[in-house]
Amino acid sequence: MPSTLVESVPSGGAHETDVIIIGAGPVGLFAVFELGLLGIKAHVIDILEHPGGQCIELYPEKPILDIPAIKSISGEDLTRQLLDQIKPFGATYHLNEMAISVEKTPANKWCVKTDMDTSIEAPVICIAAGGGSFQPKKPPITGVDAYEDQSVFYAVRQRDKFKGKNILIAGGGDSALDWTLNLQPIASKLSLIHRREEFRGAPDSIEKMRALQAAGDIDVYTAQIKSLSGDNGQITGVNVETKDGDASTIECDTLLAFYGLTMKLGPIADFGLNFTENRVAVDTEKFETSAPGIFCIGDMAHYPGKLKLILSGFHEAALMAHGAFHYVFPDKKLKFQHTTSSKDLQSTIAGQ
Ligand SMILES: Cc1cc2nc3c(=O)[nH]c(=O)nc-3n(C[C@H](O)[C@H](O)[C@H](O)COP(=O)(O)OP(=O)(O)OC[C@H]3O[C@@H](n4cnc5c(N)ncnc54)[C@H](O)[C@@H]3O)c2cc1C
User: Fold this and answer.
1) What angle is formed at CA 251 by the lines to CA 250 and CA 253, rounded to 5 degrees?
2) CA of 260 relative to ligand 1 center, distance in Å
3) Average pLDDT estimate for 215-237
4) Which end of the chain is less crowded, N or C, counting CB atoms within 10 A of the terminal residue's CB?
5) Which of 1, 310, 315, 316 to mutate to test the pocket of ligand 1 (most atoms within 8 A of CB)?
6) Ligand 1: residue whose CA is nearest its atom 39
7) What residues make up the domain containing 202?
8) Are both 21 and 131 inside the same structural domain?
9) Buried b (16+ CB within 10 A) or exposed e, 44-74
10) Mutate to test the pocket of ligand 1, among 45, 54, 74 (most ligand atoms within 8 A of CB)
11) pTM listed for this prediction
């Protein structure tokens, strides 16, 4: 998992744009390109800390064999190439933020709010939320709820919040390793716990983590978390047990548990749109939803014959952009052009 692929703007504040794209998966990213060709600016929101959606989160190294004209490409490389392709259009990214509500403004625009107090206004929303928002799996620890968001966390939204903390990171994958490497320099003490000796993350991250362990900069435990000690939402220690049954307590004031992610429809269910089979119902001409000016493309969209494929989402992005044009520029006529023959499009794509 790449730690950063694009710069995200700081959370909070009010923004205005032409189109708000909810979801930075492959389809949301390609929507930036199709909108950009028509001179339409976009802000992109994703709950994850990096773009790429399922491609990055679920299968970064698997070869995808059905992207037209590309014989084989990994999920990570597809994301990198999409980001490279859309760079000239200068989208603004709000990563690590979940779109939680949509409302109409007095000026007849849409306003999307996030769980990090960001609000964005635009005449058009494009939902490209795939299978829904990726949300952390909760660790199976009795009573963990009482400590959540106070001293137990499942994601790092603001790194500085963990400065000077005595942190225990739980998990054996890329997130656990990445945050071990990232937080160790600012933590007062950092330990890592995984139920097996072997870690599943990128070899380079494992190597760097082992180097910190060898230098005595972190402690690494092979054990399972059994319970938490603490009071009033503040943990004081994590009680663990090895596979041989040896029990002990790791003293810490912060637990960061990375036990993987699940996809949930999330707040989009409450956006007031029509749903079919748990997905947003759209027309197949513009991929517009039951709310005028709100479009939906990619895996989240439902219409007869829909295939959950990246190439279908790319097609939907092109038609959505044409539909969005009329809301963004109500007085302009849309002139269809090929990138091969339009000097304007060529110079836009070249970033001139
Ligand atoms: C193992 C596996 C293998 C696959 N192989 C192929 C293949 O070979 N070829 C192929 O074409 N397809 C394949 N697919 C399917 C393909 O990955 C999906 O069709 C594609 O990712 C859909 O793209 P998307 O942009 O619509 O959604 P996603 O990739 O799901 O991205 C949606 C993004 O929206 C974000 N989001 C959702 N709700 C919110 C919210 N409220 N606020 C903020 N962000 C939100 C999510 O965090 C996510 O990042 C595969 C899927 C899997 C799981």
Assistant:
1) 125
2) 16
3) 97
4) C
5) 310
6) 133
7) 138-259
8) yes
9) bbbbbbbbbbbbbbeebeeebeebeeeeebb
10) 54
11) 0.84
